[in-house]
Amino acid sequence: MFPAICFPPSHSQSLQQLWSRAGRRHPHQSGRSIFTLGYGCDSFAPGLKMRYRQDPLSLALCTRRLFKSDRESGVREHQEAVGIRPDATRCQPLFDRICLPDNNNNGRMYFMTSHAPRSMRLIINGKSAGDPSLRSAVKEIRKAGHPLDVRVTWEGGDAARYAAEATDEGIDVVIAGGGDGTVNEVAGGVLSAGEHGQINTAIAVVPYGTANDFAAGCEIPIGDPLAALQLAASGKSVLIDAGRANDQFFINVASGGFGAEVTVNTPPELKKALGGAAYSLMGVVTAAKATPHSGQVTLPDGTSESGDVLVMTAANGRQCGGGQQVAPHACLNDGKLDFLIVHDVDMQSFGQVLREILTLDDETNQYVSYMQAESLKMEFDAPFQVNLDGEPVSSKTFEFSVIPNAIRFILPASAPLAS
Questions:
Q1: Are 160 and 189 in contact (CB under 8 A)?
Q2: How far is residue 329 from each of residues 205, 314, 317, 368, 387, measured CA to CA in Å?
Q3: Among the three residues 72, 89, 112, which one is the final residue of a domain in this structure?
Q4: Which of 163, 210, 222, 251 pairs as cysteine with 271 (C-beta 3.0–4.6 A)?
Q5: Each residue of 60-86: pLDDT tens digit?
């Protein structure tokens, strides 16, 4: 369970110094000694209940000495805890175990280290909380020694509030159990809690949504809660950018125009039955009667261009609407958003539009504009519908911008969206 490094007896002085720094003499006796420095474990060895406290060096220190005698009366065991401070606080351990075997082990010493498990909080909606596979996965993660508690949402705003509370409490990982909307809400809660200081809480995802575009783009396990929780428990966290639309955040994509109308108009029953394919089906229906919106686009250098907008996306991730690629060159931590605008187009030209989205060649494109920028302003003559990670908002003016290295996410090592 723990990696071990063997030291010869000549290294005992370094252990003596370590023990002295903790304010105790190095004990020498003929029995076996187990010195445990750590935090967050209920037990270290069978029959030994451990207590952990923090010494002045921010080490969690607890010592158990187990003496055994082979007298005829049987084995005598004695346990003693030393080096304890009553004013303990949460800390990160440097070591987990130093073991000094008795003379029968040729005087060799074993120095074992391990990291404390991450504290995790899963935020999940009430409907998904009853999923047997999720409940089983939570049990398996806890059985493996990972601290994990659960918060169940019942109404809008709960996920953001729970995420903010977890950030304030110093929870290591907040797990968004849901789709892109839940990821958005959890990220917003973490970001709002860290507005006045550094954010140390990372976000992981257990996909439970209709489209799961962010999870799919990052290759987070979908349909396997245990694998997703294992990633949350042991995966590497990566700093990624966040998008901002006016005063609201988005992590994956902000999409406007008829694409946003598709999300709003797709019946919940169809979402449940078809998943991401429901958006594609509704997209065909909506496109047939889509009308462009007149507006003006202002670039970061101040230049403006007026025209009709049928569809627009401001992308931090690469896909939205149930797997539709809208920003194939997007990267989550490049300090830019990828903007795509589809201008007025008739139904006969939709095939050409799709080809232009695939090539993104501004020199030859007739209907599609594409650019990477840190910000963009869009003003419309009438209220314009935009979805922020699937959550609809409406306004006549949108100012899009990127917040570089805004928040930590736990992603697979193979995630194509992180450079």
A1: yes
A2: 23, 12, 9, 15, 21
A3: 112
A4: 210
A5: 333 333 333 333 333 333 233 223 223
pLDDT for 224-275, tens place per residue?
999 999 999 999 999 999 999 999 999 999 998 865 554 444 445 434 433 4
Write the CA distances from 137 to 90, 127, 134, integer angstroms. Answer: 27, 16, 5
How far is 211 from 266, CA to CA, in rounded Å? Answer: 12
| pLDDT tier, 37 (very low <50, low <70, confident <90, very high otherwise) | very low
Task: Find out whether 266 and 279 touch, Cβ atoms under 8 Å.
Answer: yes
Containing domain of residue 358, as a range?
Answer: 253-400
Alpha-carbon span 395 to 154, nearest angstrom: 28
Q: Are residues 295 and 377 in the same domain?
A: yes
CATH number at residue 204: 3.40.50.10330
391 is catalytic: yes
Q: How many residues does the chain have?
A: 419
Q: Do residues 329 and 339 lie in contact, with contact meaning Cβ atoms separated by under 8 Å?
A: no
Residue 135's pLDDT band, with cuts at 50, 70 and 90, is very high
pLDDT at res. 99:
40
Tell me, yes or no, whether 53 lies in a domain.
yes
- One of 185, 261, 356, 391 is an active-site residue; which one? 391
Radius of gyration of the chain (CA): 28
